[in-house]
Amino acid sequence: MLGFSSGLTLNLPYTEKKHSHVPESDLPDAEFEDQLSPKILQRINTESIQGLSSEALFLLKRSGSADIWGPWLDWDKFVPLLAELERSRAQNTDSADQAMPLKVEVFFSEKDAMIGTGAGPKWFDKCWQLEQRGDRIEYSSELVKGTEHDYILNISTGVAQRIFSQLPEHGT
After folding, report:
1. 107 and 159 in contact (C-beta within 8 Å)?
2. pLDDT at position 171, please?
3. How does DSSP assign 96-135, residue by residue?
4. Residue 18, phi then psi, degrees to nearest 5
5. pLDDT tens, 93-136?
């Protein structure tokens, strides 16, 4: 919603952008979000964001000791580790719900200054091929038309609604 990936870290002023609305999105909520975003960003920029760069460096594996991430060195090494954990979990459970495959859905934006729109998404998809993920992980990816990296979860895209609609209800 606020352009965390680039807007906050670069502390750029908010520029109003018109985003296409998907038919199933809640148009009044999306319009409210568009009106509220510059005010939220303005408020955030008046507060200290000290430490934000440190977190970004940590998540990019540019700070801390070399072994801070343990065996997860990159996605192409992480996916087989996750697949093994999922196989083990399925073998060691009695519950049908817990034995269900892990579902991983990825939404790529049409425009993406962070990972690009060519090699980055292709490489990520390749990391999740059946040979890497095994049969205990279901993987799918989708390009969401009319979106940018920083705004793919805005109400107007419908992506967040799709994600939350698939979560089990509390207590189930």
Report:
1. yes
2. 55
3. TTTTSPEEEEEEEEEE-TTTTTTHHHHHHHHHTSHHHHGG
4. -95, 125
5. 776 666 789 999 999 999 998 888 999 999 999 999 999 999 99
Pick from 60, 53, 87: nearest CA to 74: 60
The alpha carbon torsion through 99, 77, 51, 45 (nearest 10 deg) reads -80
Q: Is the model's pTM score more than 0.70?
A: no
Residue identified by tokens 């979560």 is: 167
For range 4-22, the mean pLDDT: 46
Q: What is the pLDDT of residue 6?
A: 45
What are the distances in angstroms from CA 76 to CA 26, 72, 92, 116, 169?
37, 9, 25, 18, 32
Q: How many helices (H) and strands (E) does the chain have?
A: 7, 2
Quote the CA–CA distance of 69 and 80 in Å, as a whole number: 16
The phi, psi pair for 143, rounded to 5°, reads -90, 125
